[in-house]
Specification:
Blueprint: E1 11-14, H1 19-59, E2 70-73, E3 78-81, H2 83-104, H3 110-126, H4 137-158, E4 166-169, H5 174-184
Helix pairs in contact: 1-2, 1-3, 1-4, 2-3
Length: about 180
């Protein structure tokens, strides 16, 4: 350009949507869900430990006994067993383990990541945790690609590469791409 004296318009295209980006967005969301569940479990375990310690201090005991109790709700005539809480907790632990496996498995398919999200969300609801957010894929992948694009351009600037005059993104042309694909089918 400067060297040869040509007047050109330097345009760069950014592929900001593809299978790998969508997978990474879901992967990041599952990681955030798992973090929220682990945090809630730690809080619950900390509160239970504090409660057990308070009970022990009050009655002078130093051991903790686990007792299954049954209570009756007279308004609905239903019986609630505290083992239900234990079952829900065990399901939540299993769902968290499944999520960890999906996160640590190289080349995990998108379907497995989404299944782990669904299982973790259902287990959290069964354990009476606040609802975990559903992955808004479009927002998630746009955020991810914006972060990566900013890092890319910062690296290019650090290397002294001339910035483009214009940047186009695939997401800017999705309607045109869909129309083109429909025309060639």
């Amino acid at each position: 350009m400067d060297y040869f004296g040509f007047d050109i318009l330097y345009v760069m295209n950014v592929t900001d949507i593809d299978d790998k980006i969508i997978l990474r967005a879901h992967y990041n969301h599952l990681d955030a869900m798992l973090h929220a569940v682990r945090e809630a479990l730690e809080k619950a375990n900390g509160a239970a430990d504090k409660h057990d310690a308070d009970d022990s201090a009050r009655d002078g005991t130093t051991t903790t006994d686990t007792t299954v109790t049954t209570t009756t709700d007279t308004t609905t005539d239903s019986t609630t067993d505290s083992t239900t809480d234990a079952d829900a907790h065990a399901q939540l632990q299993a769902a968290a383990a499944s999520a960890e496996k999906a996160l640590s498995t190289k080349g995990v398919p998108l379907a497995d990541v989404v299944a782990a999200q669904t299982k973790l969300s259902a287990a959290a609801a069964a354990a009476n945790m606040p609802p975990l957010p559903v992955c808004d894929v479009q927002t998630a992948f746009l955020k991810l690609t914006a972060e990566q694009e900013a890092a890319f351009f910062a690296d290019m600037d650090a290397l002294g590469v001339m910035p483009p005059d214009a940047v186009t993104r695939v997401t800017d042309y999705v309607p045109e791409i869909v129309e083109y694909i429909a025309a060639i089918q």
